[in-house]
Amino acid sequence: MTTVTYQFIDYDIKDSVGILMLNRPEKLNSFTAVMLEEIAAALGEAAGDAKVRAVLLSGNGRAFGAGQDLSERDVKPGDPPPDLGESLDKRYNPIVRQIRGMDKPVICAVNGVAAGAAANVALACDLVLAARSARFIQPFVRLGLVPDAGGTWSLPRLVGRARSLGLAMLGGDLSAEQAEQWGMIWKCIDDDALMDEAHTLARTLATQPTVGLGLIKKAINESHGNTLDQQLDLERDLQRRACQTEDYSEGVNAFLEKRKPAFKGR
To answer: Does residue 248 contact residue 242 with C-beta atoms inside 8 Å?
Structure first.
């Protein structure tokens, strides 16, 4: 059990899964500075805890997240414009880097609308499940802004240039079903089954060879910027690390003994 008390998120550990729930349901889980700091703290806690072998991110209430709480962005006539770059540097970008760089699988269950930065935080996760009623929205253009929180990096890699530009320039909604068809998310699930399936997936991953999962994640993440030769070398180096783990030995022995492996995550 975690000993830290948070104001705008819930974080708990169950069955070796770190469960992080966005918890401003009355505001559709829109982000504030404090909430973002709490998310970063919980992700750091999960990353550094050997007992946590997978992370599940979702939201309480009827939305996953409505993006930035614009009440923190209110600019009165005569006020200097806000420095949104500083906000990204200090609060949003570290969270995206934590998710992408964590050497454990991060699952996201999008339980409702995911708009703006919330959508892009979700897309930074390794496996994204979404309720059938969920929608993904890139509304930045409506404010004259650019998709952020990694959106302009994730979207082209997930759905290609044409669809990324359409989502970003038109600012429309994309249904969970369409997101699945486009390959933007892993799976679209009926609303009433979403959290059960997400927890089952997270628990399953938490019983797998954690080091190996982290190395798979690293290999896939780095492949986008590598040539074939670079990727072949990376696979060689990661495989050297993987075969030195206890879980590799256990996997081989379990196969030879025709039994289910009991991975320890090391």
So the answer is: yes
Q: Do domains 9-205 and 210-256 have the same CATH topology?
A: no
Q: Which pLDDT tens digit goes with each residue over 117-169?
A: 999 999 999 999 999 999 999 999 999 999 999 999 999 999 999 999 999 99
Rounded to an integer, what distance in angstroms lies between the CA atom of residue 127 and that of residue 186? 6
What b/e string do you get for 18-38 counting C-beta neighbours within 10 Å, with b at 16 or more? bbbbbbbeebbbbbbeebbbb
Q: For residues 264 and 22, what is the distance between their CA atoms, to the nearest angstrom?
A: 29
Token pair belonging to 96? 């995206």
- So what CATH class is 210-256? mainly alpha
Is residue 266 within 8 A of residue 246, CB to CB? The reply is: yes
- Give the predicted TM-score (pTM) of the model: 0.92
Contact in structure between 28 and 113 (CB atoms under 8 Å): yes
DSSP 41-71: HHHHHHHH-TT--EEEEEESSSEEE-SB-GG
> Per-residue pLDDT for 78 more than 80?
no
- Extents of the domains making up the chain: 9-205, 210-256
Task: State whether the Cα torsion 154-160-162-166 is positive or negative.
Answer: negative
Do 148 and 140 meet the contact criterion of CB atoms below 8 Å apart?
A: yes
Domain 9-205: CATH class, spelled out: alpha beta
